[in-house]
Amino acid sequence: MMYIYLVVAGVERFAFKGVASNLVTYLTDVVKLSNSSAAKTVNSWCGVTFMLPLLGAFLADSFFDRHSTILASSVLYVFGLVALTSTAFVWESIPSSNASCSFLLLSLFMISLGQGGYNPCLQAFGADQLDNDEELPLSKEDQISDAKKSSFFKWWYFGICTGSLLGVSCMAYLQDIFGWGLGFAIPTIAMATSVLPFSCGNQCYTHKDPKGGGKKRMQDLIKAIKATASKMINGKIKLSAKEVVELELEEKPLCNQKFEYTKSMTEDSNHIVASDAKVILRLLPIWAMMLMFAIIFQQPATFFTKQGMTMKRNIGKEFLIPPASLQSAINISIILLMPLYDKIVIPILRIITRDDKGINVMQRMGIGMFLSIIAMVIAAFVETKRLEISRRSDLSLSIFWLLPQYIILGISDVFTVVGMQEFFYTEVPNNMKTMGMALHLSVFGVGSFLSALLISVIEFLTSDKDGKHSWFSDDMNEAHLDLYYWFLGLLSAISLMLFVHLCKNYISRNSGLNQNCK
Question: Where in the cell is it found (predicted)?
Answer without folding.
Answer: Membrane
